Amino acid sequence: MVMMRSFPERPWFILLTAAFLICGAMVISTVLRPSIPSLCSTPRASSDLRPAILHYATSSIVPQQSLSEIRLSFDVLRSISPCNFLVFGLGHDSIMWASFNPSGTTVFLEEDPKWTQSVLQSAPDLTAHTIRYPTHLSDADHLLQSYKSEPSCLPPHAYLKGNHRCPLALADLPSSIYDREWDVIMIDAPRGYFNEAPGRMGAIWSAAVMARSRTRPGDTHVYLHDVDRKVEKTFAMEFLCKKYLVGGTGRIWHFKIPPAKNYSSATQFC
Fold it and tell me: EC number(s) in its UniProt entry (predicted)?
């Protein structure tokens, strides 16, 4: 999604397939949705997806995820949209993700303010926030070994907003992020391929806390990209849990995490 600021060209049929998927989401939303009760948020954004179709049909820049990886989350978004969709990362594919959730709430979190400004110049209708990550990839091993010594990092006391005691917590996100329960969370950022990069440790832990804190009916779908890398894979098994892993393809895993309200006395994530 957003690990690289430039994307290699891919076969033209991927562009057409992306446009087809977006068009399919539009048809399903506008034709079938009235007969299906909404389990997610109140519709907010416009469901006119024609600008997104035009964008990808006329662009040589395609999403970083493969078609099979995109399809994994597309199928869920198609079935529950309009919903609340939180994406860690902002990039050339963000218009596509927002289009897969017509009339829903889709928000992007990006680490680079210049990159955020650049993307929003070409896609001003997206909702994106620049955030700061308190970690570095080089901290990963220490964080994994030490987090259990801090009660605010552990269930049932783990929380996000203002939690500066837990080094894994994204404690300073915009209030609107904490105020909403997210039905789908995509983790494809921040950068995690060199030691000085933030790494995705905090994003993974925070997504797990968001999912466990859910009070509404239903589970939270969490997608984690780049699971071929050690940190992503290790932290996913520690916090998102193998027992909640329900699918995967290529370099992406799909977790379906239930709320923790029925087992609030648990002292570990998995």
Answer: 2.1.1.112
Question: Is residue 33 pLDDT above 50, yes or no?
Answer: no
Q: Residue 127 CA to chain centroid, in angstroms?
A: 14
Read off the pLDDT of residues 159-192 as tens digits, 9 standing for 90 and up.
999 999 999 999 999 999 999 999 999 999 999 9
Instruction: Kindly tell me if the per-residue pLDDT of 124 is higher than 90.
Output: yes
Amino acid at 113: P
End-to-end CA distance of the chain: 28
CA atoms within 13 A on the CB side of 228: 5
- Sheet containing 105-110: give its strands across: 127-130, 105-110, 84-88, 184-187, 220-225, 252-257, 245-249
| Distance in angstroms (rounded) separating the CA atoms of residues 64 and 2 | 8
- Interatomic CA distance for residues 119 and 128, integer angstroms: 9
pTM of the model: 0.82
Contact criterion met (CB below 8 Å) for 184 and 219: no
